[in-house]
Design brief:
Elements: H1 2-28, E1 35-38, E2 47-55, E3 64-70, E4 80-84, E5 90-93, E6 97-101, E7 111-119, E8 125-127, E9 129-134, E10 139-142, E11 159-161, H2 188-191, H3 199-209, H4 214-243
Antiparallel strand pairs: 1-2, 2-7, 3-6, 3-9, 4-7, 5-6, 8-11, 9-10
């Protein structure tokens, strides 16, 4: 009897062992990496809100070097200020958001940084599309706005859910846009007074000053003719006196 039970028992144990191994492998598999954003008590129209971002690494060959964030509608790059991040990393504004980056982090290390937003827009949620770059040129694009289907990896954009605006909350005035520092200086011609003499007038004035004006030339000719005429008259008179 024991001989007939043993094979069945072995088969059952084998089946249980396979299921246990499959479950352990599934549990041991690392969760898919992603980027998240959080804010304590975030609500629409809230002012001076700190956003905490975390970006998990997906590479086992290179470290993260930069995160580029595309801001959602209602937040401009001028509304964002850098608060803190990895040592040696810097914050820079772009035409569609901002970047946070610097020396490559250690391979396998995640990123955590924070920014402060002047005011959150009146919305139910905000998606911060993010491009995550690595030292070997790899780029992970966390830009999908739809939730991935069950069992799919997907690359969802970090999304912040907002509570309704507090009673009496209103949009603040738009942040003034700073003038570009690379603006070309105004040309000297544009800053000259309206009554500045033209180049033609300046040339005429110079000609008058150097003694070549028509009036001066005419005066010199008249003086020369008078001198010659006076000399002829004097010679004629002297000749008549000698003959007398």
């Amino acid at each position: 009897m024991s001989r007939t039970i043993r094979p069945r028992t072995v088969r059952r144990l084998s089946a249980v062992t396979v299921l246990a191994l499959a479950a352990s492998v599934a549990l041991a598999a690392p969760a898919s990496a992603h980027v998240e954003v959080e804010a304590a008590g975030a609500r629409a129209l809230a002012e001076n809100v700190t956003l905490d971002f975390t970006a998990e690494t997906e590479s086992d060959k290179a470290g993260i070097t930069e995160l580029e964030v595309i801001l959602p509608e209602g937040i401009t790059p001028a509304d964002v200020r850098y608060k803190e991040g990895p040592a040696g990393w810097k914050f820079a504004v772009t035409d569609r958001g901002f970047t946070v980056g610097g020396p490559a982090l250690a391979t396998g290390k995640d990123v955590a940084y924070a920014v402060t937003v002047r005011q959150l827009p009146d919305a139910e949620s905000l998606a911060f599309k993010t491009l995550q770059s690595y030292g070997d040129g790899r780029v992970d694009r966390w830009i999908e706005l739809e939730e991935p289907k069950e069992g799919e990896h997907g690359s969802p954009a970090p999304t912040l859910a907002l509570k309704p605006a507090a009673p009496g909350a209103k949009p603040v005035s738009p942040t003034p846009t700073a003038e570009p520092s690379s603006a070309a200086p105004s040309s000297p011609a544009a800053s000259e007074p309206a009554d500045t003499p033209s180049s033609a007038e300046t040339t005429t004035a110079v000609a008058a000053d150097d003694g070549s004006s028509p009036v001066l030339i005419t005066a010199l000719v008249v003086a020369a003719v008078a001198l010659i005429g006076g000399g002829l008259w004097w010679f004629r008179r002297r000749g008549g006196a000698d003959s007398a």
